[in-house]
Design brief:
The chain is α+β, with helices and mostly antiparallel strands and 713 residues long. It has 17 helices and 20 strands. The strands form four sheets. Strands 4, 5, 6, 7, 8, 9, 10 and 11 form an eight-stranded antiparallel β-sheet that branches. An eight-stranded antiparallel β-sheet has the order 12-13-19-18-17-16-15-14, sandwiched between helices. It has a two-stranded antiparallel ribbon with strand order 1-20. The protein is globular and about 100 Å long.
Length: 713
């Protein structure tokens, strides 16, 4: 088409040709390069202005109005395609809802009373029952408020503080006697000898009541379970087997990080939490463990002994199989299916625990290959009795593959959605948000270490040297140390911590305090005060770990040694790292009750633990000789060391929560002290709490001084 030719310049022949073609439109076909360039520009700017159209036309040899018309047509075409896709998605969703509606109608036809098996109440009778329950509920609330106000007025404390005390009474020992708490040998500074007692009231101080119970599963629920676990299994397998584009390697630490755009295209879904502070954490890692794959699967699925806490003692503090669902009751679903509750807590009381309630499904894919998938499923969403969870497990879990050489390869994916309430606003924010604390790498390193420990415990190898000369003695000591570590980690969660205004002047180190009454087996009966403090140190984790495991350095921080040297009389190394060991330590100056020290130390690239507990010599001899150690009461204290999540060189400036130099370590110091026996546990003198508070503050100051970190007070 020639836009430069005028009408008057046409010849008569041209005029006749023009008349013969009158009414026909002329089209300009763009070249492949022009279309490619226009498409690329459209992705960046679908509404170009006049200057952009002129510039683009000049580049492509087109008129500005041709550019304008092309973009108009492209926008219309894109809008039509999007509407067609939306209509298709809505149509599929509508069909799905209609199927579910039909399924619910069929289920309602056959519904029966869960108590008597008879037919369901009529609508009128249901309405009357609901009204009756509402009236009873209102009456109970009024009575509760009256009693609460009366009790608060009588006690002189807010009712919330009074109610929190019984929940803190649960877990041990001779450390209280050795410190002579009753006489106040570590009496707090500036406090008189007579101070008010803490009234603990009465009531049962057993372990907290488990919140979830077994439930009946309707036919409709079963169909939803099938759909949930099947899709979760398929998603987990793809997450495990596919790296790029789903996973990309982090330039910081080389770990796999989920590429969220690729993930959302492959597995489109909405977020579980509706708030703006939701965070998604995703990580993947694999390890080789010297363990039978079948044995590992059995431990994951063990419904009675909760062996997940044995596999991950420093990560999972509580684990319960609420209900085992027989595969035969769920149509078209092979394998094993359970309803599981887990509480995860690590590192410090400053890190809030995470609670998950989820489906755990295991399927054997091949002869030596299993997949275990965990995915959250809310059975209690309509029950207002249960507190809302701030954690939601997206398809996560592991693939377990037995290798030809006898080892087992375990690949783990951890993929969770958490509310901002689960993210600490303190020293630990970086390592929690960066998936270092609750991520797959931490799980796999812990699993690898624990598998090595279990293999050594069951082996016929005796420790070289020391006082342990029998296999039964080695196993008994190893079992006792394992229970000690589990006890320490499970009691590190002090969510119901106590505030003591009397100690505010001494609380420069942000000491967390809690009190519990212990009547559990394996722990001393009585009232136990737990105290913990977390701090930043400008040293690498390995240096701090070496300091705590060096017996020559122990008198610098251990108050029990009273400045005197100690001697290691037994040393049991398990695993490939020499830092993973159990030891028995004896002070050179014997105490009146012949106290010894049982200690377990372990380390991996994510951090380390040094846990110890005093134990009298006659009791220790029972375990050394191979006796049953499961009933020996033990009350551990110790240290948790981890990287601060930064990789820059450390600085000499003072750290703070919001502006802290990198390259250092985070240290948690925690003590548990038996302050009085069971018959005197109704009241606790504030001096006893002040003693424990002073003890931990003194220990922290000694550690800082020994490590030349005093400027960081």
């Amino acid at each position: 088409m020639d836009f430069g030719m005028g009408v008057g310049s046409r010849s008569s022949g041209d005029q006749e040709a023009s008349n013969s073609q009158k009414g026909k439109k002329s089209y300009h076909r763009h070249t492949a390069y022009q279309i490619q360039r226009l498409e690329a520009f459209f992705k960046e700017c679908p509404h170009p202005d006049e200057n952009q159209r002129k510039q683009l036309g000049k580049e492509l040899g087109l008129e500005p109005r041709q550019i304008k018309f092309w973009f108009q047509n492209k926008r219309t075409q894109t809008k039509t395609q999007n509407e067609r896709a939306d209509n298709s998605a809505l149509r599929m969703e509508n069909e799905k809802i209609q199927c579910e509606n039909l399924l619910m109608r069929e289920s309602l036809k056959n519904i029966v009373c869960s108590s008597c098996g008879g037919p369901q109440f009529g609508e009128e009778e249901q309405r009357r029952n609901v009204q009756k329950l509402q009236l009873e509920n209102t009456h109970l609330k009024e009575e509760h408020e009256k009693v609460s106000n009366l009790l608060a007025k009588y006690i002189g404390k807010p009712i919330a503080q009074i109610q929190s005390l019984p929940t803190q009474m649960q877990s041990l020992t001779a450390l209280g006697a050795s410190l002579d708490i009753s006489t106040g040998c570590f009496a707090s500074q500036g406090m008189g000898s007579t101070s008010p007692d803490i009234d603990l009231l009465s009531g049962n101080a057993n372990s907290p009541t488990f919140p979830y119970q077994s439930i009946g599963i309707s036919e409709m629920e079963k169909s939803l379970i099938i759909e949930t676990v099947s899709s979760a299994r398929d998603e987990l397998i793809r997450l495990i087997r596919i790296n790029e584009p789903l996973w990309i390697k982090s330039s910081t630490n080389g770990n796999y990080v989920l590429h969220h755009d690729s993930y959302e295209k492959m597995f489109p879904r909405g977020t579980h939490f509706k708030g703006s502070n939701t965070q998604v954490e995703s990580s993947k890692e694999w390890v080789l463990v010297p363990f039978s794959g079948k044995h590992l699967v059995d431990m994951f699925l063990d419904p009675i002994n909760d062996k997940c806490t044995d596999l991950f003692p420093s990560i999972i503090t509580k684990a319960r199989t609420i209900q085992s669902i027989e595969s035969g009751t769920i149509r078209n679903l092979g394998g094993s299916l359970q309803l599981v509750y887990e509480q995860m807590h690590i590192l410090s009381p400053l890190v809030p625990p995470r609670e998950f309630y989820f489906l755990r499904y295991c399927q054997q894919m091949e002869q030596h290959l299993w997949v275990i998938v965990d995915v959250s499923y809310d059975f209690y969403k309509e029950n207002q009795h249960f507190s809302p969870s701030y954690c939601w497990k997206l398809p996560s879990g592991c693939m377990i593959e037995e290798m030809a050489n006898g080892d087992t390869r375990v690949t783990w994916v951890e993929h969770v959605e958490v509310d901002d309430k689960c993210i600490p606003k303190n020293l630990y924010r970086d390592i929690v948000s960066g998936c270092l604390a609750f991520g797959a790498e931490h799980r796999m390193l812990t699993l690898q270490r624990m598998c090595e420990r279990f293999i050594y415990t069951s082996s016929e190898i005796l420790p070289t040297g020391g006082v342990i000369t029998a296999l039964e003695g080695k196993r008994s000591i190893m079992d006792l140390a394992h229970r000690m570590v589990k006890n320490f980690c499970s009691n590190l969660n002090m969510s119901s911590k106590l505030d003591f205004p009397q100690l505010s002047e001494l609380n420069n180190n942000e000491v967390q305090l809690s009190i519990r009454k212990s009547i559990e087996p394996g722990q001393p009966n009585g009232l136990i005060v737990s105290a913990a403090s977390s701090l930043w140190l400008p040293l690498p984790p390995q240096t701090i770990f070496n300091f705590f495991t060096d017996e020559k350095q122990r008198p610098q921080w251990d108050v029990l040694s009273n400045g005197n040297p100690v001697q290691e009389i037994a040393h049991i190394i398990y695993g490939t790292h020499p830092g993973n060991h159990v030891s028995i330590i004896r002070p050179f100056v014997p105490s009146e009750n012949n106290l010894m020290m049982l200690q377990e130390s372990c380390i991996d690239p994510m951090g380390s633990l040094v846990i110890y507990a005093p134990i009298d010599l006659p009791t220790l001899n029972i375990a050394i000789s191979g006796g049953d150690s499961s009933s020996i009461p033990i009350l551990p204290s110790g240290f948790i060391i981890s990287s601060d999540g930064h990789y820059e060189a450390s600085s000499t400036s003072s750290p703070s929560t919001s502006n802290r130099p990198g390259g250092g370590s985070l240290l948690t110091v925690a003590f548990q002290i038996l302050v009085c026996s069971l018959q005197y546990s109704k009241q606790l003198n504030i001096d006893s709490v002040a003693t424990v508070h002073t003890l931990i503050c003194t220990t922290v100051q000694r550690i800082k001084a020994a490590l030349n970190c005093s400027p960081f007070d």
